[in-house]
Amino acid sequence: MNTQENSFYELCRNRGFSLSLLFLLLTAASFWLLTGDLLGTAHLESLTGGVGILDTRFGYSEAQAAEHLQDLGDQGRQHVLRAIIPLDMLFAASYTAAMIFIIASMLFVRRTKEQPYPSRIRFILALPLSAGIADFSENIIQGLILLEYPAYPPGLLSLLTVLTPTKFILVAAAAAAMLAEITAAILRPAAEVKTLNEQQ
Description:
Blueprint: H1 7-35, H2 41-48, H3 62-106, H4 121-148, H5 155-187, H6 191-199
């Protein structure tokens, strides 16, 4: 694959580290808002007497999800719909972009411009992208349930019980892939670059 012909790869080569830092800062800021007292989960718990958000649990049944929604109360459900879900989607977009740019940037470390991307890159970048899609889907389904509550289609809860653990598994896989690429970039010998330059 020729990196010179792909604008995404060129963006990662030229601006990858700065974009990684930008999205890491945005991830931290959105996490602070999501968990904070102003609009986040801490405020939700004060409204509901300690009832938090559903999607921090790795696994739950439909009955447990239905009970959680009821325990939130009307005020809690409205807060989740209007504040928690938008903040969580911002957080998901931020960490997805951060992982994508970090992984892509690491593949350029100690490589010359003429060296192609490794063939594994598409699979690796699919992991954070899939995690972000799962997180977005989880939030959208929660939003649909809350908009129609209590007359929501029962099948939505079934989807929710599958999406939440799937999200956690994909995020863990993406984080492991990111750490592996960082480690590979650190250990990649500079001699690879020197040897390629000498052959040209």
